Amino acid sequence: MKAGVVAILVAFACAAAGQPARAQLFPPSPPASIAPCMRQMALTTVDGNPNAAILRIGYWTLPLAGDVRVYGHDVMWHATLHNGATAVQPFRPRNALEASVELHAPGPIEGVEFTPSGASCTLHAGLRRPTMFDGEAVQRPIVVATDPAPVAPPSCANPYASVRVVRAAEPVAPPMARQQGIAGDVTVALAVDRTGTVTYEQILSSPSVILNAAGVNSARTSKFSPAVFRCVPVDNGYVFAAAFVSGS
Which of 1, 18, 131, 197 has the most crowded Cβ, counting Cβ within 10 A? Predict the structure, then answer.
């Protein structure tokens, strides 16, 4: 029996530097400088305050530190992160955590670029409303962005977009998994370049190593459209979950 493919595929923004070679499914893992950016990042609204937004990064295991560029329509501000609050992400694999801070700026916020300390990549996110999949409400540090600099306003009608699945490949469980009734979600962090090509894979969670190869193959063979930041396609990360269902 073929396994079903999970309907919920969650976007997050990540720009991986250069043109990296495809990572191996088993050791070695992707380089440490790339791994922090193969995570979900989002920028969500704060009700009643257009000059504030919550920067969220899912599956984050490092201190939330680095340089932030906060964009308004025609201005950019700067800030530095030193740490963030941690919250559980609902509907994610067990122990999936989100690090976050609340950003404040002198004007309305539209998007954010974040370069993690020690990483050779930049995360991008446009502003969106929170969803049920974001981390639970916690007391977050407030970081104020300053030092304004003029920038050209976006030149298109829809300047921000996340990675989108154009066609999800159905994951097929191997015979051993079907025989043993092994089921569950294989969650894979992907680096998706500006052409929509998957360049790195890293398993975040899995019910069994027997399902790993099939889960990664489903992610590799799915078709993606790239993310867009201020009208320009960017290299990004994406969290892809393939659901395997046991059956006779």
Answer: 197
Distance, C-alpha 138 to centroid of its chain: 20
| 10-244 CATH | 3.30.2420.10
Which residues, including other chains, have CB under 8 Å from residue 144's CB and lie 6 or more apart?
79, 103, 104, 105
Q: Can you tell me the distance from the alpha carbon of 88 to that of 75, in angstroms, rounded to the nearest whole number? A: 33
**DSSP label of 211:** G
| Mean pLDDT of successive 10-residue stretches along the chain, which has 248 residues | 37 36 35 58 94 92 90 98 91 82 98 89 92 92 97 96 93 91 90 90 89 94 95 90 77
Domain ranges of the chain: 10-244
Q: What is the pTM of this model?
A: 0.81
